[in-house]
Design brief:
12 strands, three-stranded antiparallel β-sheet
Length: 194
């Protein structure tokens, strides 16, 4: 192999190594810039039909949440339960709450380590049948998420006969979260940030 070819091979190898280390360096600095959220598990599930709450630790801010459910089933094994609430807490700052209608549930909170303040939470009034609840963020804030609380309709055997049919940002009304039940009552809950 000639000296020229060896140098070319060495230069090619060094170039490939430099490109690879640059890509690795870029990837590691990009991942360092975006810190994943802290996830808080409420721990043990709630008692049947009770609220489970996951609260963000000090120095973090609520940015979302969710749940795990242990539904009630009838004698045929059919689920007769419903997630009656899944939203930021109206009563406890920086917390996410979930409630099963009859069964047990466990809340999860997703918390950011950014320097922003905890969100403002706004709840609508309760709606009646065939009405959509809307919670609008106060002036100077923007909608960042939301959820619902509900009073589902049940049958004579106390089985759930209802479902949430809307749980989403309102497309026609800026900065607003909306919720609607098929047969029962709902309340929309908006999470708002500055």
């Amino acid at each position: 192999m000639s000296v020229f070819r060896r140098r070319l091979s060495v230069l090619s190898a060094l170039s490939a190594l430099a490109l690879a280390s640059g890509a690795i360096g870029s990837a590691s600095s990009a991942s360092a810039a975006v810190e994943p959220p802290v996830v808080v598990n409420a721990g043990y599930p709630s008692q049947p039909g009770q609220v489970s709450r996951a609260t963000c630790p000090e120095g973090t801010q609520l940015v979302g949440g969710g749940y795990r459910v242990f539904p009630v089933r009838n004698g045929l094994g059919e689920v007769v339960d419903f997630i009656a609430a899944n939203a930021p807490s109206v009563t406890v700052a920086n917390a996410w709450e979930v409630r099963g209608l009859f069964g047990r549930a466990g809340a999860f909170a997703m918390c950011s380590t950014s320097s922003t303040k905890a969100p403002t939470v706004v709840a609508s009034s309760w709606t009646g049948k065939d009405a959509t609840a809307k919670a609008t963020c106060p002036e100077g804030t923007r909608l960042t998420g939301g959820g619902y609380d509900s009073r589902p309709a049940v049958n004579g055997m106390n089985n759930n006969m209802d479902e949430i049919v809307i749980n989403a940002p309102a497309g026609q009304t800026p900065n607003t979260w909306m919720a609607r039940m098929d047969k029962g009552e709902a309340r929309a809950i908006a999470m708002c940030a500055k």
